[in-house]
Amino acid sequence: MIYALCLVLFMVGLYGVVTKKNTVKIVIGIIIMEYAVNLFLVLLGYRKDGVAPIIDEGTSVLKFSQLAVDPLPQALVLTAIVIGLGVIALMVAICIRLYERYGTFDITEMRRLKG
Amino acid sequence: MNVIPLFVAIPLAAAFFIPMVSQKFRWVPDLLGNLTAFALLVMAVSVIGKKDVYIMGGWAPPIGINLVLDGLSVLMLITISLVGFTATLFSIRYMEQYTSKLRYYSLFLLMMGGMNGVALSGDMFNIFVFLEIASVASYALVGFGCEHEELEASFKYLVLGSVASTLILLGVAVIYGSLGSLNMAHVSRLIVEQGMNKALYFSLTLLVMGFSLKAALVPFHAWLPDAHPSAPAPISAMLSGVLIKVLGVYALLRISFNVFGMSPLLANILIWLGTISMVVGGLLALGQWDYKRLLAYSSISQVGYVVLAVGIGGAVVSRGDSMTVAGLAIGGGLFHLINHAAFKSLLFLSSGAIVYSTGTRDLRKMGGLKDRMPLTSGAANIGAFSISGIPPFNGFWSKLVIIIAAVQARYYWLALTAVLISVITLAYYLKLQRHAFFGPASENNRDVREVPLSMCIPMVLLAVLCVGMGLLLLPGPRAEILQPAVDALTMGMKYATVILGR
């Protein structure tokens, strides 16, 4: 159920990318898509009433594995967020440069390339 | 000392050090960039015929991260470093037109490191990470000139590329949610044991869509004809020559043969994607008047050949027919892949040389360059003959193998289509030759001169390769280079046993 909500969020982002004419709105659409995937990854490791995956001296491994949330998706999400940050930064920089050149954020007015 | 991690570490380290050490002297980035590319080429040649698994940090495969060197990876590494070396050599003079060489070399090496990582990685998530490293560097390189067209193309490429990466990441996440593992060998083992379920089919769909977007197969090709011509010429050569193949085709083949296992459905999807790309790319290339845009559409068409051939091989494997035919089809596809890397980078470099001398990319404004630039036009003619499949050159042999394999696998219509598109390829390259190199010299080309020596050497080198690579089909070289790559794919799900060692 909650996974379906992630998919809905993903689709919202994709809708933004596909239909919007403003470059900044397209960037926001991509951000929403990335966050939907990150949310999905974190939810994969989620467990209700779980504890942080840090093992103490006292806890037994068996009990730990029954209680703790899965740490691997969290590591994956950290990497994915950092990569996403890099991509978004580059994308925004290009938007600004495009605005300097064309004087607009509207992609229908940027039509030097065709064919 | 194990050489495998160095393929990723050396370019990344060099990309980091170049901006640090080369603020003072202008020649340092050139020297470091070329040295690194040459070192990678030497390393790639030295691992021919080797097979190895490198385990990072001492954690055994299902838990830890591993790098896998097998026949297919070696083939990819050689292609990447060969094209990379010629492109850096070409950049020494060509990139004088732009302002910041050190950033250029830094991004270039970042891209090479990312591609090497994709070719070596044995882990689904690491493939995503390296793919993003290579992609981000290539987005920046496409927009390197910061002019109207370049920024526009770069933005288009960025948006479609990010959508592709997001789809791939979602696919990887679904695999983890469904099987609880990300190591490719382990995933493949689990799929053999448990069979496919709905979530895995969903993930396979996402991955095929994502990698097809990166490979610019036809329903997903919209960014390529803008992005590849807008980049500086050496980068166009890298993008068309290796980037779409490593990030798209290689990853697609690896997941479809070795991780998910070839099924008739998947093979049909590959065959259709390949055929449509081949036909549409070829037909669209016919109408182009921009030298580099024509080459970009032709790349779509030629990558279609590769995917078609491998799809035929996959269909034969999945219905359990003779392995000889499957090996022939896959071998033809991979052979065409490396051939295409050689002649397409040659053609893009020659386009760079023409832009450097004449300042135009429009075929209608060229003409008569044969006498003005004899070396460039000779090399470009060899490239054009190879790509359109004239007998002594390498393109002829790979297309011949693909067509024979299609006939033997009883896909007669596909064989016929491949022949027809080959004729169309010849047609648009004849158009390119007639307008660019032959015919009367136009007014503004009166004082055009041949490009400097450091730009001629890479073109001559690639032209020699175009003539000589047909020799790879002889039994000796084939057993060393092509056959291990074909075996890596045809062994299919035995991949898991080889990597996990049990």
CATH topology of chain A: Helix Hairpins
Task: Give the count of helical stretches of chain B.
Answer: 20
Largest interface: A-B, 32 and 36 residues
Query: What is the mean predicted local confidence, pLDDT of chain A?
Result: 86
Number of domains of chain B: 1
End-to-end C-alpha gap of chain A: 44 Å
- How would a crystallographer describe the biggest sheet of chain A? none
- The portion of residues forming beta strands of chain B comes to under 5%
Largest sheet features of chain B: 2 strands, antiparallel
Low-pLDDT residue intervals, each spanning 5 or more residues of chain B: none
Element order of chain B: H for helix, E for strand: HHEEHHHHHHHHHHHHHHHHHH
What would your notes on this structure say?
The complex is a heterodimer of chains A (115) and B (502). Chain A has 115 residues and is an all-alpha fold. Chain A has one domain (2-45, 61-109): Orthogonal Bundle (Helix Hairpins), CATH 1.10.287.3510. Helix content of chain A is 70%, strand content 0%. Chain A contains 4 helices and no strands. Chain A has helices at residues 2-19, 23-45, 61-67, 71-102. In chain A, helix 2 (23-45) runs antiparallel to helix 4 (71-102). The longest helix of chain A has 32 residues, at 71-102. The radius of gyration of chain A is 20 Å and the shape is elongated. With 502 residues, chain B is mostly helical. The mean pLDDT of chain B is 88. Chain B has one domain (6-500). A two-stranded antiparallel sheet of chain B has the order 1-2. Chain B has 20 helices and 2 strands. The radius of gyration of chain B is 21 Å and the shape is globular. Chain B has helices at 6-21, 28-46, 71-94, 101-120, 124-142, 148-179, 184-194, 198-215, 224-230, 233-259, 264-286, 291-318, 323-358, 369-372, 374-388, 394-408, 412-436, 453-468, 475-490, 495-500, and strands at 52-55, 66-69. Chains A and B meet through helix 1, helix 2 and helix 4 of A and helix 5, helix 6 and helix 9 of B.
